[in-house]
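Continuing from the previous page...

OK, I double-checked the sequence for histidine kinase against my notes and this is the correct one:
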Amino acid sequence: MALLRLTALIGAVPAVVLVLLLAAGAVATGPGLLALFACLAAALLLAGLLLADLARVDALLEAAQAPPAATPLPRLPELAPLAEGVVRLVQALREGNAAAARLRGTDAGIIEALPDPLLVLDSRRALLRANRAARALIGAAPPDADPSEPPAPPAGAAGPAARPEAAPAGQGAGPGEGGPGARGAPTLPSPTGRATGELAALLRHPVLAEAADRVLADNTPQFADLVLPVPVARDLSMQVIPLAPDRPDGGRLLVLLADRTRERLVERMRADFVANASHELRTPLASLLGFIETLRGPAEDDAEARHRFLGIMAGQAERMQRLIDDLLGLSRIELTEHTPPAGTADLAAIIRAEAEAMAPILARRGARLLLELGEAPPAAPADAGQVAQVVRNLMDNAVRHGREGGTVRVALAAQAIRRRPGVSLAVSDDGPGIPREHIPRLTERFYRVDSGRSRSAGGTGLGLAIIKHIVNRHRGQLAIESEAGAGATFRIWLPTGGERAGEAK
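Thanks. Re-ran it with the corrected sequence; updated structure tokens here:
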């Protein structure tokens, strides 16, 4: 159709002239018709040449969006300058696009390599982009989203993490002391459909919501501090900066994060250490000072009293040493609690080794230890030293607080919770048991059901607090089952799957 229209446009004038000449008799009919057909044929040929050259010019324009390729120039000399101009335009556009692509790649590389976590959100706080540091900190989505495009629709939510049916230690408390023994928080769906507990908790955090609303309303940066409670409490400093506020969809938000967990933990631990040490060391120190004063005075020449008092003083000094060791150990565990362990541990071998080390205490108490090691995996992702400490503390508690001459059972078995593979360790004694109202507070530092009995048994009051923080680090679960007069069972569940701890919660 284009060819016919162009032919008619070119041959219309000479054809009309010939028709008028034929009608006036100025030209003979035969030669006139022949001239008319020759004119139309020439118009058709010229139209074909023009269309072919215009097609080449169009190909040059399309080449601006395609890789470089050799495109033939028009055959008509009159169109050559136009074609050469198009070629120069195509080359300039291609060079500009390449420079823009290099600049975008450089910007993306800089953002990705920034040491501080960085998020880009839309006006509804949906995640558009996260750099490597942000993904490492809160498990955010990979940087495959274009900040200029709207976010993808939600893809659904994962269900909550499983919990043991037994009453968990620390139920109803916060993430600090006395909080859940080791229960994970449920996984929440992120607005971009990538469900990760920490990311969803951040995007839905009221502090971020308030800061984002202020930025969108005032177009001024906002600074705030917040605490992410899952899977382990994190202290974050946050800066929210407006980006492209004139966009019709409300603009973008740049969120800069800084993890202050370690330094604030150090501050809290320093204060806690001073407070706890001063409180717990006051009694043995007062006892030591009393005995020293007695040995300097009335019992100075009494060899029997001196021997007895020195034995008591040695016991008090050993208790203070155990207390300080436990406090320092607990502080070290808290420092690494938010970092999942990277090694593996043979749980059955650890239990056997700790059982052999318990032989002297078992002999003094006249108790026996029964090991029930089922088909647990030979190696699980765990910190072997910390798992050994958990097993040691649980066995020691069961022997010291169990019935004299009684039996302590240690059971290890594979157990999946909500399709998550794991291993369950249960340590049971046949002692006097624990009243139910005390169970939620057992993992608090220095909390004792019977202070006098616990101290006489040689405990520092930190064993279960240490266990709780170790289980938290392994993203496991701690449950305590007991009734007064019916013994107690301490149950630990640790995940053995390959997923990153914390994202599974």
